[in-house]
Amino acid sequence: MATNGALALIADAGLRDEIERIAAAAGIRVVFAAEPSGRKAWVGAAAVLLDVAAAQRCRELGMPRRPAVLLIAAAAPGTPEFEVAMAIGAQEVIILPGQESGLVAVLSDAAAGESDGRRGAVVAVIGGRGGGGASVFAIALAQAAGEPDHECLLVDVDAWGGGIDLALGAESDAGLRWPDLAAAGGRLSYPALRDALPRRRGVVVLSAGRTGVELRPTALAAVVEAGSRAGATVICDVPRQASAAAETVLAAADLVVVVAPAEVRACAATRVVADWVAALNPNVGLVVRGPAPGGLGAAEMATILGLPLLAAMRAEGNLDGALERGGLARSPRSRSPLAVAARRVLTVLHRQPGAAA
User: Fold this and answer.
1) Does the predicted TM-score (pTM) go above 0.70?
2) What tens digit of pLDDT does each residue of 219-251 get?
3) Residue 159: helix, strand or coil by DSSP?
4) One domain for residues 232 and 183
5) Domain limits for position 223
6) pLDDT tens, 341-352?
Protein backbone atom coordinates (compact mmCIF):
# COMPACT_ATOMS: atom_id res chain seq x y z
CA MET A 1 0.00 0.00 0.00
CA ALA A 2 1.31 3.44 -0.80
CA THR A 3 2.14 5.81 2.02
CA ASN A 4 -0.72 7.90 3.31
CA GLY A 5 -0.74 11.59 2.52
CA ALA A 6 -2.47 14.51 4.17
CA LEU A 7 -6.26 14.79 4.02
CA ALA A 8 -7.51 18.32 3.26
CA LEU A 9 -11.17 19.20 3.74
CA ILE A 10 -10.98 22.74 2.37
CA ALA A 11 -13.66 24.43 0.26
CA ASP A 12 -11.86 27.70 -0.59
CA ALA A 13 -10.02 27.36 -3.93
CA GLY A 14 -7.39 29.92 -2.94
CA LEU A 15 -6.54 28.03 0.25
CA ARG A 16 -6.39 24.78 -1.67
CA ASP A 17 -3.81 26.26 -4.05
CA GLU A 18 -1.75 27.51 -1.10
CA ILE A 19 -1.90 24.12 0.58
CA GLU A 20 -0.83 22.27 -2.57
CA ARG A 21 2.18 24.57 -2.95
CA ILE A 22 3.21 24.18 0.68
CA ALA A 23 2.68 20.40 0.64
CA ALA A 24 4.94 20.11 -2.40
CA ALA A 25 7.66 21.95 -0.49
CA ALA A 26 7.17 19.64 2.50
CA GLY A 27 7.38 16.53 0.29
CA ILE A 28 3.92 15.16 1.06
CA ARG A 29 0.93 14.57 -1.18
CA VAL A 30 -2.49 15.99 -0.34
CA VAL A 31 -5.88 14.42 -1.00
CA PHE A 32 -8.74 16.94 -1.15
CA ALA A 33 -12.26 15.84 -0.23
CA ALA A 34 -15.56 17.27 0.97
CA GLU A 35 -15.49 15.05 4.06
CA PRO A 36 -13.72 11.87 5.25
CA SER A 37 -14.86 8.71 3.45
CA GLY A 38 -14.83 6.98 6.84
CA ARG A 39 -12.99 6.62 10.13
CA LYS A 40 -10.14 4.71 8.47
CA ALA A 41 -9.42 7.61 6.09
CA TRP A 42 -9.59 10.08 8.97
CA VAL A 43 -7.30 8.11 11.29
CA GLY A 44 -4.99 6.88 8.52
CA ALA A 45 -4.05 10.26 7.03
CA ALA A 46 -0.60 11.60 7.90
CA ALA A 47 -2.25 14.93 8.77
CA VAL A 48 -5.74 16.44 8.48
CA LEU A 49 -6.34 20.04 7.32
CA LEU A 50 -9.81 21.48 7.92
CA ASP A 51 -11.69 24.68 7.31
CA VAL A 52 -14.33 25.73 9.84
CA ALA A 53 -17.26 24.16 7.98
CA ALA A 54 -15.41 20.85 7.61
CA ALA A 55 -14.44 20.86 11.29
CA GLN A 56 -18.11 21.24 12.17
CA ARG A 57 -19.10 18.38 9.85
CA CYS A 58 -16.41 16.09 11.25
CA ARG A 59 -17.58 16.82 14.78
CA GLU A 60 -21.15 15.94 13.79
CA LEU A 61 -19.90 12.72 12.15
CA GLY A 62 -18.21 11.76 15.42
CA MET A 63 -14.68 11.52 14.03
CA PRO A 64 -12.30 10.40 16.81
CA ARG A 65 -9.64 12.73 18.17
CA ARG A 66 -6.23 12.20 16.60
CA PRO A 67 -2.90 14.02 16.29
CA ALA A 68 -1.86 16.37 13.45
CA VAL A 69 -5.24 18.07 12.90
CA LEU A 70 -5.00 21.71 11.77
CA LEU A 71 -7.63 24.37 11.21
CA ILE A 72 -6.76 26.38 8.08
CA ALA A 73 -8.28 29.84 7.62
CA ALA A 74 -7.81 32.92 5.45
CA ALA A 75 -8.33 35.27 8.42
CA ALA A 76 -8.06 35.06 12.18
CA PRO A 77 -11.04 33.00 13.40
CA GLY A 78 -13.35 34.20 16.15
CA THR A 79 -14.43 32.45 19.33
CA PRO A 80 -17.06 30.18 17.67
CA GLU A 81 -14.48 28.95 15.15
CA PHE A 82 -11.95 28.30 17.92
CA GLU A 83 -14.57 26.31 19.83
CA VAL A 84 -15.23 24.12 16.77
CA ALA A 85 -11.49 23.60 16.28
CA MET A 86 -11.03 22.56 19.90
CA ALA A 87 -14.02 20.20 19.75
CA ILE A 88 -12.54 18.25 16.82
CA GLY A 89 -9.06 18.21 18.40
CA ALA A 90 -7.20 20.68 16.16
CA GLN A 91 -3.73 21.26 17.57
CA GLU A 92 -3.43 24.77 16.13
CA VAL A 93 -4.87 27.32 13.71
CA ILE A 94 -2.89 28.24 10.58
CA ILE A 95 -3.66 31.52 8.77
CA LEU A 96 -2.85 31.54 5.05
CA PRO A 97 -1.19 33.50 3.69
CA GLY A 98 1.12 34.54 6.51
CA GLN A 99 1.85 31.37 8.48
CA GLU A 100 3.25 29.13 5.77
CA SER A 101 6.27 28.15 7.87
CA GLY A 102 4.03 26.62 10.55
CA LEU A 103 2.21 24.48 8.00
CA VAL A 104 5.49 23.43 6.35
CA ALA A 105 6.80 22.27 9.74
CA VAL A 106 3.73 20.17 10.51
CA LEU A 107 3.54 18.62 7.04
CA SER A 108 7.28 17.92 6.96
CA ASP A 109 6.99 16.14 10.29
CA ALA A 110 4.02 14.14 8.96
CA ALA A 111 5.95 13.22 5.81
CA ALA A 112 8.94 12.10 7.86
CA GLY A 113 6.67 9.86 9.93
CA GLU A 114 5.35 7.95 6.96
CA SER A 115 6.55 4.41 6.28
CA ASP A 116 7.28 2.65 3.02
CA GLY A 117 5.36 -0.38 4.30
CA ARG A 118 1.74 -0.92 5.20
CA ARG A 119 0.20 0.57 8.29
CA GLY A 120 -0.11 -1.87 11.14
CA ALA A 121 -3.60 -3.00 12.05
CA VAL A 122 -5.23 -1.83 15.29
CA VAL A 123 -7.26 -4.34 17.31
CA ALA A 124 -9.32 -3.52 20.40
CA VAL A 125 -10.08 -6.43 22.74
CA ILE A 126 -12.86 -6.05 25.30
CA GLY A 127 -14.64 -8.42 27.66
CA GLY A 128 -18.32 -9.21 27.33
CA ARG A 129 -18.45 -9.45 31.10
CA GLY A 130 -15.99 -8.91 33.94
CA GLY A 131 -13.44 -11.69 34.25
CA GLY A 132 -14.29 -12.95 30.78
CA GLY A 133 -10.67 -13.44 29.74
CA ALA A 134 -10.24 -10.40 27.47
CA SER A 135 -6.84 -9.38 28.85
CA VAL A 136 -5.47 -12.90 28.45
CA PHE A 137 -6.80 -13.08 24.91
CA ALA A 138 -5.23 -9.68 24.11
CA ILE A 139 -1.87 -11.09 25.24
CA ALA A 140 -2.39 -14.22 23.16
CA LEU A 141 -3.18 -12.08 20.10
CA ALA A 142 -0.06 -10.00 20.67
CA GLN A 143 2.11 -13.09 21.03
CA ALA A 144 0.63 -14.61 17.86
CA ALA A 145 1.23 -11.37 15.95
CA GLY A 146 4.71 -10.73 17.34
CA GLU A 147 7.01 -12.85 15.19
CA PRO A 148 10.71 -12.37 14.40
CA ASP A 149 9.90 -10.39 11.23
CA HIS A 150 6.93 -8.47 12.63
CA GLU A 151 6.49 -6.37 15.74
CA CYS A 152 3.45 -6.06 17.96
CA LEU A 153 2.63 -3.27 20.41
CA LEU A 154 0.39 -4.34 23.31
CA VAL A 155 -1.35 -1.33 24.88
CA ASP A 156 -3.05 -1.52 28.28
CA VAL A 157 -6.03 0.87 28.30
CA ASP A 158 -7.34 -0.12 31.75
CA ALA A 159 -5.89 2.21 34.39
CA TRP A 160 -7.54 0.15 37.14
CA GLY A 161 -6.72 -3.34 35.89
CA GLY A 162 -3.51 -3.89 37.87
CA GLY A 163 -1.23 -3.70 34.83
CA ILE A 164 -1.15 -6.09 31.89
CA ASP A 165 2.61 -6.47 32.42
CA LEU A 166 1.78 -8.74 35.37
CA ALA A 167 -0.16 -11.16 33.17
CA LEU A 168 2.68 -11.07 30.65
CA GLY A 169 5.31 -11.73 33.33
CA ALA A 170 7.04 -8.41 32.61
CA GLU A 171 6.22 -6.51 35.80
CA SER A 172 9.88 -6.41 36.86
CA ASP A 173 11.22 -5.46 33.42
CA ALA A 174 12.73 -2.01 33.10
CA GLY A 175 10.87 0.47 30.93
CA LEU A 176 8.14 3.08 30.86
CA ARG A 177 4.53 2.61 31.95
CA TRP A 178 1.53 4.85 31.25
CA PRO A 179 2.15 7.14 34.24
CA ASP A 180 5.51 8.02 32.67
CA LEU A 181 3.71 9.07 29.48
CA ALA A 182 0.87 10.97 31.15
CA ALA A 183 1.81 14.20 29.36
CA ALA A 184 2.24 12.65 25.92
CA GLY A 185 0.30 14.12 23.01
CA GLY A 186 0.69 14.93 19.34
CA ARG A 187 3.01 12.85 17.17
CA LEU A 188 5.35 10.41 18.91
CA SER A 189 8.51 8.81 17.58
CA TYR A 190 7.72 5.09 17.62
CA PRO A 191 11.38 3.94 17.54
CA ALA A 192 12.08 6.04 20.64
CA LEU A 193 8.91 4.81 22.34
CA ARG A 194 9.65 1.17 21.49
CA ASP A 195 13.16 1.39 22.90
CA ALA A 196 11.79 2.82 26.16
CA LEU A 197 9.20 0.05 26.75
CA PRO A 198 9.55 -3.52 28.07
CA ARG A 199 9.61 -6.26 25.44
CA ARG A 200 8.74 -9.94 25.71
CA ARG A 201 8.93 -12.48 22.82
CA GLY A 202 8.45 -9.88 20.08
CA VAL A 203 5.76 -8.01 22.04
CA VAL A 204 6.42 -4.42 23.08
CA VAL A 205 4.15 -3.66 26.05
CA LEU A 206 2.84 -0.37 27.39
CA SER A 207 1.20 -1.21 30.71
CA ALA A 208 -1.02 0.98 32.86
CA GLY A 209 1.03 0.05 35.89
CA ARG A 210 -0.47 0.12 39.35
CA THR A 211 -1.06 3.79 40.13
CA GLY A 212 -4.61 4.32 38.84
CA VAL A 213 -3.51 7.25 36.66
CA GLU A 214 -6.25 7.82 34.09
CA LEU A 215 -5.19 7.70 30.44
CA ARG A 216 -5.50 10.87 28.42
CA PRO A 217 -7.25 10.21 25.08
CA THR A 218 -4.77 12.39 23.17
CA ALA A 219 -1.80 10.48 24.60
CA LEU A 220 -3.47 7.14 23.84
CA ALA A 221 -4.28 8.19 20.28
CA ALA A 222 -0.68 9.32 19.78
CA VAL A 223 0.73 5.97 20.96
CA VAL A 224 -1.66 3.89 18.85
CA GLU A 225 -1.04 6.07 15.80
CA ALA A 226 2.76 5.87 16.25
CA GLY A 227 2.73 2.08 16.43
CA SER A 228 0.36 1.65 13.49
CA ARG A 229 2.23 4.13 11.30
CA ALA A 230 5.48 2.28 11.99
CA GLY A 231 3.89 -0.94 10.72
CA ALA A 232 3.45 -2.68 14.09
CA THR A 233 0.23 -4.53 14.86
CA VAL A 234 -1.33 -2.67 17.80
CA ILE A 235 -3.39 -4.74 20.26
CA CYS A 236 -5.33 -2.71 22.86
CA ASP A 237 -6.80 -4.25 26.02
CA VAL A 238 -9.88 -2.10 26.62
CA PRO A 239 -11.91 -1.92 29.87
CA ARG A 240 -15.67 -2.42 29.84
CA GLN A 241 -16.33 0.98 31.44
CA ALA A 242 -17.21 3.78 29.04
CA SER A 243 -14.54 6.50 29.01
CA ALA A 244 -13.02 8.90 26.52
CA ALA A 245 -9.85 6.76 26.38
CA ALA A 246 -11.75 3.51 25.76
CA GLU A 247 -13.93 5.06 23.08
CA THR A 248 -10.89 6.60 21.36
CA VAL A 249 -9.47 3.12 20.76
CA LEU A 250 -12.79 1.43 19.99
CA ALA A 251 -13.61 4.03 17.32
CA ALA A 252 -10.18 3.83 15.68
CA ALA A 253 -9.77 0.02 15.65
CA ASP A 254 -9.73 -2.00 12.44
CA LEU A 255 -11.41 -4.79 14.42
CA VAL A 256 -13.02 -4.94 17.87
CA VAL A 257 -12.91 -8.39 19.48
CA VAL A 258 -15.48 -9.08 22.21
CA VAL A 259 -14.45 -12.02 24.40
CA ALA A 260 -17.09 -13.81 26.46
CA PRO A 261 -17.51 -17.17 28.21
CA ALA A 262 -20.25 -19.52 26.99
CA GLU A 263 -22.71 -18.71 29.77
CA VAL A 264 -26.27 -17.38 29.77
CA ARG A 265 -25.51 -14.50 32.14
CA ALA A 266 -22.36 -13.62 30.18
CA CYS A 267 -24.48 -13.56 27.03
CA ALA A 268 -26.82 -11.02 28.64
CA ALA A 269 -23.92 -8.85 29.79
CA THR A 270 -22.24 -9.08 26.40
CA ARG A 271 -25.40 -7.79 24.73
CA VAL A 272 -24.95 -4.46 26.56
CA VAL A 273 -21.26 -4.23 25.69
CA ALA A 274 -21.86 -5.19 22.06
CA ASP A 275 -24.50 -2.49 21.61
CA TRP A 276 -22.15 0.14 23.03
CA VAL A 277 -19.20 -0.99 20.90
CA ALA A 278 -21.20 -1.34 17.67
CA ALA A 279 -22.42 2.26 18.01
CA LEU A 280 -18.77 3.34 17.85
CA ASN A 281 -17.43 0.87 15.31
CA PRO A 282 -19.30 -1.63 13.09
CA ASN A 283 -16.26 -3.92 12.75
CA VAL A 284 -17.05 -6.12 15.76
CA GLY A 285 -16.67 -9.87 16.20
CA LEU A 286 -17.11 -12.40 18.98
CA VAL A 287 -14.72 -14.89 20.59
CA VAL A 288 -16.42 -17.47 22.83
CA ARG A 289 -14.46 -19.17 25.58
CA GLY A 290 -15.41 -22.55 26.99
CA PRO A 291 -16.48 -24.48 28.92
CA ALA A 292 -20.25 -24.15 28.45
CA PRO A 293 -21.74 -25.33 31.77
CA GLY A 294 -25.31 -25.01 30.48
CA GLY A 295 -24.63 -26.26 26.98
CA LEU A 296 -24.77 -22.82 25.30
CA GLY A 297 -22.92 -23.26 21.99
CA ALA A 298 -20.61 -20.62 20.52
CA ALA A 299 -22.60 -20.36 17.27
CA GLU A 300 -25.85 -20.06 19.20
CA MET A 301 -24.38 -17.30 21.36
CA ALA A 302 -23.17 -15.41 18.30
CA THR A 303 -26.64 -15.67 16.74
CA ILE A 304 -28.30 -14.34 19.90
CA LEU A 305 -25.88 -11.40 20.02
CA GLY A 306 -26.01 -10.73 16.29
CA LEU A 307 -22.20 -10.78 16.03
CA PRO A 308 -19.98 -12.75 13.65
CA LEU A 309 -18.18 -15.59 15.42
CA LEU A 310 -14.44 -15.08 15.03
CA ALA A 311 -13.32 -18.07 17.08
CA ALA A 312 -14.45 -20.51 19.74
CA MET A 313 -12.01 -22.14 22.13
CA ARG A 314 -12.33 -24.93 24.61
CA ALA A 315 -11.21 -24.53 28.20
CA GLU A 316 -7.46 -24.60 28.71
CA GLY A 317 -6.06 -26.46 31.69
CA ASN A 318 -3.61 -24.79 34.06
CA LEU A 319 -4.00 -21.38 32.43
CA ASP A 320 -4.67 -19.68 35.76
CA GLY A 321 -1.63 -21.36 37.24
CA ALA A 322 0.58 -20.16 34.39
CA LEU A 323 -0.64 -16.60 34.88
CA GLU A 324 0.18 -16.78 38.60
CA ARG A 325 3.64 -18.26 37.99
CA GLY A 326 5.48 -15.89 35.68
CA GLY A 327 2.77 -14.85 33.25
CA LEU A 328 1.54 -16.13 29.90
CA ALA A 329 4.44 -17.17 27.68
CA ARG A 330 3.51 -18.79 24.37
CA SER A 331 5.28 -19.00 21.04
CA PRO A 332 3.41 -17.73 17.94
CA ARG A 333 3.12 -21.37 16.78
CA SER A 334 1.77 -22.81 20.02
CA ARG A 335 -1.04 -25.36 19.57
CA SER A 336 -2.87 -24.39 22.78
CA PRO A 337 -6.59 -23.54 22.41
CA LEU A 338 -5.84 -19.92 23.27
CA ALA A 339 -3.09 -19.56 20.66
CA VAL A 340 -5.12 -21.34 17.96
CA ALA A 341 -8.08 -19.01 18.57
CA ALA A 342 -5.78 -15.99 18.45
CA ARG A 343 -4.38 -17.06 15.07
CA ARG A 344 -7.92 -17.48 13.73
CA VAL A 345 -8.74 -13.91 14.73
CA LEU A 346 -5.54 -12.62 13.09
CA THR A 347 -6.53 -14.43 9.89
CA VAL A 348 -9.84 -12.56 9.90
CA LEU A 349 -8.05 -9.30 10.68
CA HIS A 350 -5.68 -9.67 7.74
CA ARG A 351 -8.69 -9.95 5.42
CA GLN A 352 -9.85 -6.50 6.52
CA PRO A 353 -9.34 -3.82 3.81
CA GLY A 354 -6.12 -1.94 4.49
CA ALA A 355 -4.98 -4.17 7.34
CA ALA A 356 -1.33 -5.17 7.45
CA ALA A 357 -0.61 -8.84 6.93
Assistant:
1) no
2) 888 788 888 878 899 999 999 988 988 998 998
3) coil
4) yes
5) 122-350
6) 999 999 988 776
